[in-house]
Amino acid sequence: MLLEVRDLHVEFRTRDGVAKAVNGVSYGVDAGETLAVLGESGSGKSVTAQAIMGILDMPPGRITGGEILFQDRDLLTLKEEERRKVRGAGMAMIFQDALSSLNPVLSVGEQLGEMFVVHRGMSRKDARAKAVELMDHVRIPAARERVKQYPHQFSGGMRQRIMIAMALALEPALIIADEPTTALDVTVQAQVMDLLAELQREYDMGLILITHDLGVVADVADRIAVMYAGRIVEQAPVHDIYKAPAHPYTRGLLDSIPRLDQKGQELYAIKGLPPNLMAIPPGCAFNPRCPMAQEVCRVDVPPLYEVSAHGEPEHVVAEPGAERVSACHFWRECLHG
Amino acid sequence: MAEPILEVSGLFKHYPLTQGILFKKQIGAVKAVDGVDFTLLRGETLGIVGESGCGKSTVAKLLVNLEKPTAGAIRYKGEDITRLSGKALKAVRRNIQMVFQDPYTSLNPRMTVGDIIGEPYDIHPEVAPKGDRRRRVQELLDVVGLNPEYINRYPHQFSGGQRQRIGIARGLALRPEVIVADEPVSALDVSVQAQVINLMARLQDEFELSYLFIAHDLSIVRHISDRVGVMYLGRIVEIGRDAEIYDHPTHPYTQALLSAVPVPDPDAREHRERIILAGDVPSPTNIPSGCRFRTRCWKAQERCALEVPVLAVPAEFRHASGPQAHDSACHFAEEKQVVPPEGASDDHDDGTP
């Protein structure tokens, strides 16, 4: 495994109380693989990514438990200086909003070149040449002229390409993309996702794609982890999950999106609202909104069960690395229902 | 049933670009809306889709009179509202209300929910006498699925989906006939989106509303709309019933747009044809001559640069009666199926490749 997150816990101490944003998340990604982390706002998907990158705001954030193994080293035990070397050269992140992630008063060439000056000790002139090369690589037309321009002179899609170029600059082993195309229009979104997938193949990178868009996930991911209230509720290869979800939350999400190819009747709507992270319901966090909830769901927090279409009638708690897991006491009923 | 309630014809909105401080001189214009025509029928939902900058939100603002058009007419029940003023305008505005995109910024944080929803009654006191307002507001809260006891709460005490319900309740307060909804669900989470879409569909039946539903999400627009118009750079390039547009698009832009939408089905990944458009949308200050889509179109020929295509049934389909015969502004319109017909489609393919 290129990256392995084990039982990560993150909380935020605020004036109003402690918000438990991440409550025991474990996932891994291999070189060349795309893991999609799917969840709604407040599910903890971005906080987990920030913890991996080491860019979590601390305080108010606090990592209260777990390990983050990257190329077999636990990042959480490294010194900040070591951590900085990993960041950029080992792993890089692409953010949702390219305009606010770029410095408005520096030309894009300076910002791209800075990577090489800081991490590789190159001269400014060489760094500039590298920046042009990178911009060419992410197919920005007229790179030689545009390298002198400022972020506001680029369109949204072009800015996101610059972000991708910046992430790729030092050829990291892992890229974390947090809603990379959410701010873009559909036609541009398709261009950017295609580019990202192509570059991933070229460099054999691991990719963690954080998104709320089930369509984007179906297009590019190998595996999906679905998050709810700071936990992974289901993790599976992408084909399995769309064919037969093993968690009522995943099922609800899939049923609630309108389809391009069908004119539906009334949409299925998951009732209620996502939980307040300062008061996560006891038992299964999804139980107040779940159509299948029973008494046990209000009491026992479901562990991650191993999901297999045939096999043991008994529920088995999953070993780390199991191919398909679900945190539902009734995953079998959900799978076949 | 099928009488028009809003007729938009030749609508233009150009924002002037000026230079100089004291003696401003116009050096150009942002052509946000550049010749739009459509009709909204009573009780129907017309969806308008398009990418950012295509002018769809400007159309919304023009319809509710937040902006004055540069040229063109907006007829509400036959009367051109762009020429009205004073009392007559006020009376018409009551009947065309708007629901905004962002439920976080479109509600005043210092007003209670009761004041927000009741504020339209201050401007149109004839709708509800003063003593009756509180009860009306509580009724509206109930109608949009919120607890009527929340009347004294403030917007920050609600989630995004609940706030959008408040925005919808405010839009309904004056019992309008037309609701213009500009991206009403795009700021909401997936699970909450469905709730709001269902609510809007229910209210339409209950209050016999006509919707102009503006969004960039093609799946949502298909779900809610009876007819769909596709906008590009200030103009409608194709318009028709939802099955005509989604299953039988004839304009290359519509085809590209549909093919780019990610479909939540990993099996479709391999056998889907994707049309990836080159480049970006041109600037609305400098619209290409002829067909405005030609700079990104794979079919463009010389004719496209010279002649502006009109929005009408293309000549090749003029004598056809099938779903491909709908308005499309392209010189080289041809049918192309880009959305794979998955499962139950509500109409049959008539064999045109």
UniProtKB/TrEMBL annotation, chain A:
Lineage: Bacteria, Bacillati, Actinomycetota, Actinomycetes, Kitasatosporales
GO CC aspect terms: plasma membrane
Keywords on record: ATP-binding, Cell membrane, Membrane, Nucleotide-binding, Transport
Keyword Membrane: yes
UniProt superkingdom: Bacteria
Family listed: Belongs to the ABC transporter superfamily.
Record-level Gene Ontology MF annotations: ATP binding; ATP hydrolysis activity
Membrane topology of the entry: Peripheral membrane protein
Membrane-spanning parts: none
Subcellular localization, as worded in the UniProt entry: Cell membrane
Protein's UniProt name: ABC transporter ATP-binding protein
PROSITE patterns in UniProt: ABC_TRANSPORTER_1, ABC_TRANSPORTER_2
Gene3D superfamilies associated with the record: P-loop containing nucleotide triphosphate hydrolases
InterPro entries the record matches: AAA+_ATPase, ABC_Ni/Peptide_Import, ABC_transporter-like_ATP-bd, ABC_transporter-like_CS, Oligopep_ABC_C, P-loop_NTPase
PANTHER family the record matches: DIPEPTIDE TRANSPORT ATP-BINDING PROTEIN DPPD, OLIGOPEPTIDE TRANSPORT ATP-BINDING PROTEIN APPD
One GO-annotated biological process of the protein: peptide transport
Ranges for domain ABC transporter: 5-254
Coiled-coil ranges per UniProt: none
Pfam families: ABC_tran, oligo_HPY
UniProtKB/TrEMBL annotation, chain B:
Segments forming domain ABC transporter: 6-258
GO BP of this protein: peptide transport; transmembrane transport
SUPFAM superfamilies membership: P-loop containing nucleoside triphosphate hydrolases
GO MF annotations, alphabetized: ATP binding; ATP hydrolysis activity
PROSITE patterns xref list: ABC_TRANSPORTER_1 (PS00211), ABC_TRANSPORTER_2 (PS50893)
Transmembrane residue ranges: none
Metal-binding is among the record's keywords: no
InterPro entries: AAA+_ATPase (IPR003593), ABC_transp_ATP-bind (IPR050319), ABC_transporter-like_ATP-bd (IPR003439), ABC_transporter-like_CS (IPR017871), Oligopep_ABC_C (IPR013563), P-loop_NTPase (IPR027417)
Superkingdom, taxonomy of origin: Bacteria
Keywords of this entry: ATP-binding, Nucleotide-binding, Transport
Stretch list, region Disordered: 334-353
The keyword Acyltransferase belongs to this UniProt entry's keyword annotation: no
Annotated NCBIfam families: oligo_HPY, PRK11308.1
Protein family: Belongs to the ABC transporter superfamily.
Full protein name: Dipeptide ABC transporter ATP-binding protein
